[in-house]
Amino acid sequence: MKSSPLIFVALDYPDAQSAWPLVRQLDPQLCGVKVGKELFTSAGPQFVRELVERGFRVFLDLKFHDIPTTVAKAVKAAAELGVYMVNVHAAGGRRMLEAARAALAEREQRPLLIAVTVLTSMTADDLHELGLNVTPAEQVSRLARLTKSAGLDGVVCSAQEAEMLQEQCGNDFVLVTPGIRPAGSEQGDQKRVMTPEQAARQGIQYLVIGRPITQASSPAEALQQIQASLTA
Ligand SMILES: O=C(O)c1cc(=O)[nH]c(=O)n1[C@@H]1O[C@H](COP(=O)(O)O)[C@@H](O)[C@H]1O
């Protein structure tokens, strides 16, 4: 039987004050937390340090995408915060990915280094508009193979692409999947979605879930329900 994935709760709140009520109800042994662009821009590295001090596995989701030197330094700064996982955009290309990997190489304890393939909010039409005449799955596959050959730990993709990537990149390659939507919940801007139960059956290591938890009337209960559904 495949082991249950770890859920990273996306703390997509405007500031630390709004995030704390949920964080205080979470058990760091039972879930991770994701700090993205909105919260990091307002609450900064100190908030991340506090989460790490409380024992949380923190996914610092800043999706670095820049010239190799800049991304390498940004990834190193993230590692110094003690985060569990950090991400970059695979579209930054091989040299950028390798520079990010090299920046962590000497560290005894380093975060998982993950590359975003095709955002889960994107469709084939979005890719075509960018001049990419491929399906999201084809582009995810291409970027995941690049990421693996550059020595990174894994990718962010949609759960819909998990089976394909496990075949192409092996089961040790880490898959992180946002776009998770419990049956009946609002899809919002996500396009390539899957329910948590289906995603768990794929053997994905990490699920990222935001609004279905944070917008629920009781976020902590919503998380518990999802977790219970994964082991049912
Ligand atoms: O890297 C990410 O975390 C990410 C990549 C991606 O392709 N799609 C995606 O939704 N995310 C993040 O995952 C979270 C999903 O949140 P919800 O759509 O509210 O569940 C957001 O914080 C996004 O920034």
From TrEMBL:
Q: Name one GO molecular function term.
A: orotidine-5'-phosphate decarboxylase activity
| Name of a matching Pfam family | OMPdecase
Tell me the residue numbers annotated for binding substrate. Answer: 12, 34, 61-70, 120, 181, 190, 210-211
The active site of this protein is located at 61 (for ompdecase activity), 63 (for ompdecase activity), 63 (proton donor), 66 (for ompdecase activity)
Q: Which SMART domains match?
A: OMPdecase
Tell me the superkingdom of the source.
Bacteria
SUPFAM superfamilies to which the protein is assigned, alphabetical: Ribulose-phoshate binding barrel (SSF51366)
Residues in Orotidine 5'-phosphate decarboxylase domain copies? 6-226
Q: Which UniProt keywords apply?
A: Decarboxylase, Lyase, Pyrimidine biosynthesis
Which biological pathway?
Pyrimidine metabolism; UMP biosynthesis via de novo pathway; UMP from orotate: step 2/2
A biological process (GO) of this protein is:
'de novo' UMP biosynthetic process
Q: Reaction catalysed?
A: orotidine 5'-phosphate + H(+) = UMP + CO2
Please provide, in alphabetical order, the Gene Ontology terms of the cellular component aspect for this entry.
cytosol
For this protein, the Enzyme Commission number is 4.1.1.23
Family note: Belongs to the OMP decarboxylase family. Type 1 subfamily.
How the protein assembles, per its UniProt entry? Answer: Homodimer.
Function of the protein: Catalyzes the decarboxylation of orotidine 5'-monophosphate (OMP) to uridine 5'-monophosphate (UMP).
The protein here is known as Orotidine 5'-phosphate decarboxylase
Organism of origin is Pseudidiomarina insulisalsae
Which gene is this protein's source?
Answer: pyrF
